[in-house]
Amino acid sequence: MKISVLGRNARWLDALALLAVSATLWFAFGWQLLVKELPCPLCLLQRVAFIMVGIGLLMNLRFGNRPLHQGIVVLSALAGVVASARQVLLHIAPGDPGFGSPFLGLHFYTWALLIFLALLVYCGLMLMSDAAGSDTAPRKLTPLARYAALVFLAILVVNVVSTTLECGLGPCPDNPTRYQWLP
Amino acid sequence: MIMMLPFVTSLLSAWFAWRGRRDASIGWWFVTLAIYIAWCFYHMTSSLNISL
């Protein structure tokens, strides 16, 4: 397979990547509601990093594939690697139960680290495909891109509300057990 | 430290991208990144109980 195939399919690949990022955020929020485990500050920072990655992908969909947008994805994913790797190291000692319940044998921050690394690989491959142009005018979204963007915007609003209810207008405790703005 | 602040600024960035305003979107993404770095210093500067 020639690498330029990726470039020719960049629009729907970026839409799928944005859907994957949104699905990660929706899954974390669903877990928060169903298992009743509130996200810690480092977990919330990882969510912010996923959102920043999503913004770069959304820009690719809206304005075309540009190195600046890929740079946003790379820096955002690196920010996520910092937060998730820090949390992995916090709980790496033998006998440490980790934070929260594991999913398929791994804690959420370990999954986050793997997903951020996968996003970096994806971004590297897209840059290698040399698909970037120079036009930055807004373009009409395809139905799949429009759906991905709406799903992404929805989970952003949900996260703003959820984090405000959990932390209020201040810092979050290291091990949150209740929503500060809910009785 | 306002934990929900980067969520608000990232929402603004995504909203401007959706509305086709690229420069505003990039500007709010940088604001989010700056807050993210500040929050990392707040939460990640204690020493780890491991040898590196």
UniProtKB/TrEMBL annotation, chain A:
- What are the UniProt keywords, alphabetically? Membrane, Transmembrane, Transmembrane helix
InterPro entries listed in its UniProt record: DiS_bond_form_DsbB/BdbC, DsbB-like_sf
Give membrane topology per the record. Answer: Multi-pass membrane protein
- What subcellular locations does the record give? Membrane
Spell out where the chain crosses the membrane. Answer: 12-32, 44-61, 73-94, 106-127, 147-165
Top-rank lineage group of the source organism? Bacteria
- Protein name per Swiss-Prot or TrEMBL: Disulfide bond formation protein B
